[in-house]
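About this split. The held-out portion is used to measure sequence recovery: a designer receives only the structure tokens and must propose an amino acid at every position. Recovery is the fraction of positions where the proposal matches the reference. Here is one held-out target exactly as it appears in the evaluation file.
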């Protein structure tokens, strides 16, 4: 079971690395993105080497027991070094001199981490007392081996320091960004860092209990790995949210807008852009562009049918809708959907009222101009487009317009 879980997580993490690497190659000047890519690669490697079968297979291939643990923890050090460099970059301040100073400190920090890790690996090399594989209980199997303990203590010290710094800084940096997917990602990343510190604390407490003659294997080999795994998933989620969040939101908008878009553009194909840009391609390509285009084309249709909508139609719809206790957002959506249907219906039969509407776009006092709010408003229009309330109002509008036309 552990093999399947860790290998699946590792494969997903490496897919995320590949995605970020492509984005980084397109924008080499984005150092933070490059660091995120390297750090994500470190987490992905940790998942792979955490699979017991891969762990033992690697050691069998190289002929050194538990050498996979060195590679696993070295991958953690890659993450830790990247986190420390991010801390220095984010706290450097503005100006060329500040950035130059941050680069110098970053090189020194990476050099110090490399030196300390070389000492740790040396401790592993000289202190490994046997050739028994310990993929699940390495930290408790060698509590009496000084060299291995140097390896483990240095690992926890470097890793814990990077987690504490990054976990503290991420929420502060997110607060300056305002509501955004990057801010959400930073907060999730911070949660992963703090849970990673729980892992470090469990390991240190486990060492202390073993040295005092009260070993707690359940803590070191149970709670600690579990918290580390969940922390790693949170870290990966934090790194993926800034890229995945907008695309998921765009997909949801498309899913809600597409039925309305197809309906309103069926009679006016001239407002639609040639769909060859995405036809036959991966269905998740250009999601944001397609969502933007659909909203723009719906608005184009609305502008084109204004003269086909009676000037008092929106007022009539709002009056009938208030009778069923809708909130302001729902009222605006119902009124706009009814006006849109009425305009399309009148245009289909060639009817132009004497007094047409100035606009069929309905906004409330609380309607915000932000793009996300406009998306949500149009999505609500799509949701109620075929509702019974609108059918009732349309019947009344047809009856009102039919009398003077006799």
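Reference sequence for scoring:
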């Amino acid at each position: 079971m552990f093999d399947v879980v860790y290998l699946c997580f590792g494969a997903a993490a490496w897919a995320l690395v590949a995605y970020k690497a492509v984005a980084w190659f397109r924008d080499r000047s984005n150092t933070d993105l490059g660091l995120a890519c390297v750090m994500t690669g470190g987490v992905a490697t940790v998942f792979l080497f955490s699979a017991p079968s891969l762990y033992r297979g690697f050691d069998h291939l190289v002929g050194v027991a538990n050498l996979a643990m060195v590679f696993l923890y070295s991958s953690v050090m890659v993450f830790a070094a990247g986190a420390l460099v991010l801390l220095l970059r984010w706290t450097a301040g503005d100006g060329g001199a500040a950035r130059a100073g941050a680069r110098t400190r970053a090189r020194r920090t990476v050099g110090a981490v490399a030196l300390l890790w070389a000492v740790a690996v040396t401790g592993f090399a000289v202190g490994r007392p046997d050739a028994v594989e310990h993929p699940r209980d390495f930290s408790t199997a060698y509590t009496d081996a000084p060299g291995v303990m140097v390896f483990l203590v240095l690992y926890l010290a470097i890793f814990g320091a990077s987690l504490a710094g990054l976990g503290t800084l991420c929420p502060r940096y997110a607060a300056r960004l305002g509501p955004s997917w990057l801010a959400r990602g930073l907060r999730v990343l911070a949660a992963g860092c703090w849970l990673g510190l729980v892992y470090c604390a469990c390991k240190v407490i486990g060492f202390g209990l073993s040295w005092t003659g009260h070993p707690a294997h359940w803590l070191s080999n149970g709670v600690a790995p579990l918290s580390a795994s969940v922390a790693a998933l949170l870290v990966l989620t934090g790194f993926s949210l800034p890229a995945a969040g907008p695309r998921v939101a765009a997909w949801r908008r498309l899913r809600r807008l597409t039925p309305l878009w197809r309906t309103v553009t069926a009679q006016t194909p001239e407002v639609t852009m040639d769909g060859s840009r995405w036809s036959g391609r991966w269905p998740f390509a250009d999601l944001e562009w397609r969502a933007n285009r659909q909203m723009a084309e719906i608005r184009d249709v609305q502008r084109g049918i204004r003269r086909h909508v009676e000037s008092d139609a929106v007022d009539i719809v709002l009056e009938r809708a208030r009778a069923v206790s809708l909130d302001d957002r729902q009222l605006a959506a119902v009124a706009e959907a009814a006006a849109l249907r009425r305009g399309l219906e009148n245009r289909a039969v060639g009817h132009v009222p004497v007094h047409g509407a100035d606009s069929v776009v309905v906004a409330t006092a609380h309607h915000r101009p932000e793009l996300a709010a406009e998306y949500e408003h149009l999505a609500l229009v799509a949701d109620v487009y075929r509702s019974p309330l609108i059918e009732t109002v349309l019947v009344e509008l047809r009856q009102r317009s039919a009398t003077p036309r006799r």
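Annotator remark: The two ends are 77 Å apart (CA to CA).
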